[in-house]
Amino acid sequence: MRVIVVGTRGSALALTQTRWVVERLKEQWPEAEFKIKTIQTRGDRGAPPTDRDIFVKELEEALLRGEIDIAVHSLKDLPTEQPEGLVIASIPKRVDPRDVFIGRNGIRRLEDLPEGAVVGTSSVRRKAQLLAYRPDLVVRELRGNVDTRLSALGSGEFDGIILAAAGLLRLDLRNRIDAFIDPKIMLPAPGQGALALEVREGDDIADELAYSIHHHPTDDRTTAERSFLHHLGAGCLAPVGALAHVEEDGTLRLEGVVVAPDGSSMIHGEIEGDAEEAWELGAELARDILEQGGKRILEGLRLEQ
């Protein structure tokens, strides 16, 4: 078997995720040889967050050129439409999809923040839902990798910050988490906490290797969430949240929300059905939310852009 080259971004989190993937692949295929190759994306070079697929495109181009055989992505960064010639071969088991709060000066929960407190986040989705819950707060831009964001909290500029639980858990920084945010307050990004292994269409070896660590319940959940995002006609940077659960009897429950960026308007909905119809359930919930006023919110965003 040839050496399988696994491509990833070069951030500490991306490398940690990719090493985890390679370890799982080696467990399934001890005779295989793997090599990790880091690739810098436009997002790593500081491209504006409004650009599409800024953490993805260079990895996909390397796949198409044959420089790598498997690309490891954070699923929430991956557009819902696949480029021609590439397929998602595997969605490994997801870690906690929720967002988390980290505070300073003994502040341990969103509820403990005083009026006018400053909260840092890089996400329009988080900002919108936070302001819907606590319109008295001040939300300021906070970008960079996990270490950069944690350091910013220590500088005193922020009273608290919001991050994805998954990144902290994968980096073994659970001790830094003060509180997991209830999804009733803040729904995560579609696909948050999950990874995607992308391969070239027709590369049977890479496809089989990647599929060996596929996790069907995670696939069902994230398929519903990403279908919801897709059928809203919104990108991964829109103020859209979604979270699905699969019960033991195979029932999938999907919750979704579209929020005005200033938190002044929120359209929320839920749906349930057979997990085998995850894509259709996401599409149906998107239609319902668009009809309830989500279309107006999303059209307003496009006009602002």
Pattern of helices and strands: EHEHEEEEHEHEHEEHHEEEH
Radius of gyration using CA atoms only: 19 Å
Assign a percent range to the helix content: 25-40%
The rounded distance between the terminal residues' Cα atoms is: 49 Å
CATH architecture of the largest domain: 3-Layer(aba) Sandwich
Q: Average pLDDT across residues?
A: 93
CATH topology of the largest domain: D-Maltodextrin-Binding Protein, domain 2
User: How many beta-strand elements?
Assistant: 13
Q: How many helices?
A: 8
Our estimate of the beta-strand percent is: 15-25%
What is the CATH C-level name of the largest domain?
Answer: Alpha Beta
**What is the total number of structural domains?**
3
Walk me through what this model shows:
By secondary structure, the protein is α/β, with parallel strands linked by helices. The chain folds into three domains: 4-92 and 194-214, D-Maltodextrin-Binding Protein, domain 2 (3-Layer(aba) Sandwich), CATH 3.40.190; 99-180, 3-Layer(aba) Sandwich (D-Maltodextrin-Binding Protein, domain 2); 223-300, Double Stranded RNA Binding Domain, CATH 3.30.160. The protein contains eight helices and 13 strands. The chain has helices at 12-28, 57-65, 124-133, 146-154, 165-170, 204-211, 216-232, 278-304, and strands at 4-8, 34-38, 70-74, 86-90, 99-103, 118-121, 138-141, 160-164, 179-180, 195-200, 240-246, 251-259, 266-274. The strands form three sheets. It has a five-stranded mixed beta sheet with strand order 2-1-3-10-4, sandwiched between helices. Strands 7-6-8-5-9 form a five-stranded mixed beta sheet, with helices on both faces. The chain has a three-stranded antiparallel beta sheet with strand order 11-12-13. Strand 12 (251-259) and strand 13 (266-274) form a beta hairpin. Helix 7 (216-232) runs parallel beside helix 8. The radius of gyration is 19 Å and the shape is globular. The mean pLDDT is 93. Belongs to the HMBS family. Monomer. The modification S-(dipyrrolylmethanemethyl)cysteine is found at residue 236.
